[in-house]
Amino acid sequence: MNTLTGSKPILPQEKSKVLFDSKDIDFGFPEWQLQEISSLWHQGKSLMYITKIVKRNQHEVFFRLYEAWIDGKIDDIEKAFSTGEKLLKGRDRDE
Predict the structure, then answer these.
(1) d(CA 86, CA 95)
(2) How many domains does the chain have?
(3) Residue 65: which residues within 8 A CB-CB, separation 6 or more?
(4) What band does 22 get if pLDDT is binned at 50, 70 and 90?
């Protein structure tokens, strides 16, 4: 789902799958939140710390950091995996 427009992506029905379609992940971010995540990351804060500060799902924060890594804005994405066990187990916002 395109969370910013609310419309479904147009894909061929056969042999296609929308990734994360059945997950509670929102890919839309207000600009201030994107900046806050980047700022906290550059300050050396952990992924789990950032999720608590910005009140977002840990997977959403990870995807934001991953996009920043793809864009060359951060080069230490491996640090996000240091809490990987908790990330995989903590599927809810409250964990």
Answers:
(1) 8
(2) 1
(3) 37, 41, 47, 74, 77, 80
(4) confident
